[in-house]
Design goal:
Distance between the termini: 5 Å
Mean pLDDT: 81
Helix content: over 70%
Strand content: 5-15%
Length: 153
């Protein structure tokens, strides 16, 4: 019997990070495009723009992480889809809270609006990225503790 080491730890974090950079481009790019096309300082619209941007990035993330980073554990089951939606909603909550909270704090500084929005978005992306990784790894594509895959010769 041959033993093959699973993609774990640092390699998974690296793969998740590379996909995360693509998602960040989608996320921040969509937010900035919406702000350029429909500029606003209204909290409700900012929340809507952040939600649209984040949702596009999460959809992209699910596709690539299910097919690359967590391919072995991704079964495409209804359970995984439901858990992915739940983790996405939790991460969206983290993203929106951090985005609006940071934006509110920076509103009391002399930071220009465009920079304030992007600083807030960057911090929101980082913290939702961290929460998302751990939820995806340990809940959505749960690796039931198996360190090696055993295959017959």
């Amino acid at each position: 019997m041959a033993q093959h080491k699973q993609k774990r730890g640092p390699l998974q974090v690296l793969q998740f990070g590379v996909i995360g950079f693509a998602n960040a481009g989608i996320d921040i790019g969509t937010l900035n495009l919406l702000l350029i096309l429909f500029h606003t300082d209204d909290r409700i619209l900012l929340l809507l723009y952040n939600t649209i941007a984040y949702t596009l990035a999460v959809a992209n993330s699910y596709y690539w992480n299910a097919n690359i980073t967590f391919k072995r554990a991704a079964k495409g089951s209804n359970r995984q889809r439901i858990l992915c939606i739940i983790q996405g909603l939790i991460s969206l909550g983290v993203s929106n809270l951090v985005f609006l909270g940071t934006n509110e704090l920076l509103d009391y500084t002399a930071v220009p609006n465009w920079m304030r929005y992007n600083i807030a978005k960057g911090l929101a992306m980082f913290l939702s990225f961290l929460s998302s990784f751990f939820m995806v790894k340990y809940f959505v594509f749960k690796d039931f503790g198996k360190r090696f895959i055993k295959e017959n010769d």
